[in-house]
Amino acid sequence: MEFCGESSVQNLEALSALLSTHQEEEEDTDCRNAAAFAQLGPGHIGPPPKKYKEVSTAYMKKKSKDIWSKEEVAEGSQYDDLTDPRPQPEYEIILKQSVKTEDLFLGLSRKNPSSMCCEAMLVKIKLPDTKATEVVLDMKEKFLDLRTPKYKLGLHLPHPVHIQEGKAQFFSEREELEVTLLMKRPLDFINMQ
After folding, report:
1. Where do the domains of the chain lie?
2. Which of 21, 86, 165, 180 lies 20 to 30 Å from 140 when distance is taken between CA atoms?
């Protein structure tokens, strides 16, 4: 079997002629060379693709009386406030896991450094010129809402968290708020044992 040359070009053209639904004008195959063969690909076999008419979803008839569908609304967008002019403070999300000596030295558990084995999430938020009494923090399962007179932060969390088991601590000397949240993992009994 040859991989390049005129017989391969002829085999490809014969296959294309078998698969095509309309007769194309015959071209002189003797003048083709290996450079022309290199330009052919899987898309050149068979008839050209049909052009489908795109249908706009805005004008499709809906059976329900809903104003919009669930696919059109981004998850968590109900918490976004686009009219608030306050800037977003700098923040950092750090995933944490508790590691004991038997995990580190003996490898007795199946823990590894991946994020799948992390149990908690630490969110560090820098709040310059802010007092602890000015901070208003509201937690949802997948959303952290922080408001101060100077800053606003609406943070969609990468994992669901246990709201009741979290804690927040404000460090005045660093002007930083640390929020520690315990992650809600549905398969913890499989991953952590």
Report:
1. 6-44, 77-191
2. 86
